[in-house]
Amino acid sequence: MTSDVKAAEARPSLKAILASDLPASLVVFLVALPLCMGIALASGAPIMAGLIAGVVGGLVVGFLGGVPLLVSGPAAGLAVMVFGFIQQLGFAVTCAAVAAAGLVQVALGGLKVARSALAISPAVIHGMLAGIGILIVLGQVHIVLGGSPQSNAWNNIRELPGQILNLHGAATLLGLMTLGILIAWGFLPNGRLKKVPGPLVAVLGGTVVAAVMNADVARVQLAADALSAIKLPSLPEGSMWGAFAVAVFSLALVASAESLLSAVATDKLHTGPRANLDRELLAQGVANTVSGLLGGLPITGVIVRSAANINAGAKTRWSAIMHAVWMLAFITLLGSLAAYVPLTVLAGLLVHVGLKLVNLAHIRELRHRGELPVYLITVAGVVGINLLAGIGLGLGAAILRLLWQLGQVRVEIHADKGVHQVCISGALTFVGVPKLSTALAKIPSGAKVEVDVAVNTLDHSGFEALESWADTHRKTGGSVRMEPLEDVWTRRSARAALATGPAASSPSSPVHHVSTLSPGGVQ
């Protein structure tokens, strides 16, 4: 990034802000407001906690963040986790865990390890989000139908038939209407009407219909005085410290991963200043600490709001900052209007959000790349056990898949006129050494052997196993014709240089399908 670009991003003109960022901030505000309230509902937290997180995320990350067009606030991806912690620790202690998780993020940002979080398999991340989406749908559909969510996924599934047979009139109608509007909005052709945020239309529509019907349904409850709604955090007592530590590091890990992935995705949506991930992680940590201290939900960068921000024409970080200002103004001046919003309408919004977290495009891509089993294992773990177990199972499955791939060496041996021709292909690593040794052991002593090394991955263990066998075979009277493996390593360096610079190897050099790394490495 040039110094001129940096200066333009840091000091935008007032005219540019009014022309692009002001209108975009209003769009983001209208998208974020119902989502902040809905995510608080799904988290089992006070509605104000979601609004506080929205304000803090916009202001703190807006000013300090390393991704100017990223919009931060409470995210559906953390709702299920927060719900569990509130049930286990209570809301005040959960807020303390949010604040402490922010400090962990600040430390990670200071250590400049942000990019290492991107090493987590996308199949695990998408599986985690899909599992969370399923849990949100299973819980919130009970509210849409006029009932109450159960304690876990299995109970929600078991109670669903009874809930369907015992609908609650107006509440069910409003929830289903909200969900119907959101689904229909996605099929509208691009035009002026499509530019109006679907969540705003659905929530306003449901609220107006509830008012006209004079429906007797549960509604949002906000304190008349915004300051009085702030709940200070408290530290755990007695045996709760272990669960508190788990909450802190779990929130820090998942919030960091989601924020950084959203930052990378946001970079792909525009051509402006590129992301500074370490600065972004530090800013997210500061925001979470402030949010936790003020009684707010955990904060992450959110790709849906960020995409709305960019599509609305935002050019600088001032759009995200101003959207938080509008939200703060709503809380302090117009908060009483929220009392007209039925909870079943917010639940309909959340069901739609949950459904979108199960992304069919991601499933097709992962199936094409052979990573669908990792995705499904993660989803099953998140839904069937809990979020942390799902992530752990997904990471374990990803590692096992990697080991399985590293062991996919193919050894083909053909005897032709007294010469044993050996073709070694695939990945020759420490995992595949036993298979290689078993195949080579079948070659009789004293035989003439020609070896073609056509692997796409070769580590030090494979290197040594092949060299050792060739040495032993020659000592027992046989002959081995094989390209020196040292040349394989040398050619790897030459190919790497060719990929990064103008230098090229000699045209007369033979071409082999060989790709190597340092011992234990993976290409």
Automatic annotation (TrEMBL):
Chief place where the protein resides: membrane
Transmembrane segments: 22-42, 49-71, 91-111, 123-145, 165-188, 200-220, 240-261, 281-304, 324-351, 372-404
Record membrane topology: Multi-pass membrane protein
Compartments (UniProt record): Membrane
Keywords: Membrane, Transmembrane, Transmembrane helix
GO cellular component: membrane
InterPro entries per UniProt: SLC26A/SulP_dom (IPR011547), SLC26A/SulP_fam (IPR001902)
Region described as Disordered: spans on this chain: 499-523
Gene Ontology process terms (BP): transmembrane transport
PANTHER family found in the cross-reference section: SULFATE TRANSPORTER
Protein name stated in the entry: Sulfate permease family inorganic anion transporter
Organism of provenance: Corallococcus coralloides (strain ATCC 25202 / DSM 2259 / NBRC 100086 / M2)
